[in-house]
Design goal:
By secondary structure, this protein is of the alpha+beta class. The protein is built from seven helices and eight strands; from the N terminus they run E-H-E-E-H-E-E-H-E-E-H-H-E-H-H. The strands form four sheets. A two-stranded antiparallel ribbon has the order 1-8. It has a two-stranded antiparallel ribbon with strand order 2-3. Strands 4-5 form a two-stranded antiparallel sheet.
């Protein structure tokens, strides 16, 4: 079974924020939430790189490990989703996630915390696929329509890749080797099970 993954190629990302805009518009998320954000390292300096970051749909998700009400679950293809009906808004997932994926809309008096929201890999949530309830709580379910997440489809430079982790990693490796490099990236072996050099 495929494990769905995101990967952003820092050599191609131009910090246009098209992925952020596409996600926000597709899922009608509240103004105070960005399910995806672009991070720039060495901004304005030589060697500047940008990457698009969202929920990485971890195999052993730390957000799920700390949730006291077990509102997180993984689909058969590895997409980590959550049930907003179970969420109590405690914020433990926010502190556990190294990617800053869980977010809380600021609503009510004194910006009281609400139910958690995060990237769904455009896979919706627990309600029936493409139902009105699912769209209102989680956004559009493009996976049920046989499509990839809109953020990746809208990426003008194809820096943001999404899909089966094996295919995504193979595509990225081909890009790296075509550029004359090697994937000496911290955590690569763990995330994508890459063990060797050129084939």
């Amino acid at each position: 079974m495929a494990r769905m993954k995101f990967l952003c190629d820092p050599e191609r990302c131009i910090e246009c924020n098209g992925c952020v805009t596409a996600c926000n518009n597709e899922h009608n998320v509240p103004d105070s939430i960005n399910r995806r954000h672009v991070v720039t390292l060495k901004d304005g300096e030589a060697g500047e790189k940008s990457i698009s970051v969202a929920c990485m749909h971890c195999t052993d998700a730390p957000c799920a490990a700390v949730c006291p009400v077990d509102c997180f679950y993984a689909t058969p293809d590895g997409i980590v989703l959550h049930d907003k009906d179970l969420c109590i808004g405690c914020g433990y997932c926010f502190y556990a996630c190294p990617f800053g994926a869980p977010q809380f809309a600021e609503q009510g008096a004194f910006n009281a915390r609400t139910k958690m929201d995060k990237c769904t890999f455009c896979a919706g949530g627990p309600p029936a696929d493409n139902s009105v309830e699912e769209y209102e709580k989680y956004g559009r379910n493009r996976i049920a329509e046989g499509k990839l997440p809109l953020c990746a489809e809208m990426c003008a430079t194809k820096a943001l890749l999404a899909g089966d982790g094996t295919i995504v990693s193979d595509l990225y490796l081909k890009r790296v080797f075509n550029r004359g490099g090697s994937p000496n990236i911290w955590g690569w072996e763990t995330a994508y099970s890459f063990k060797g050099g050129k084939e």
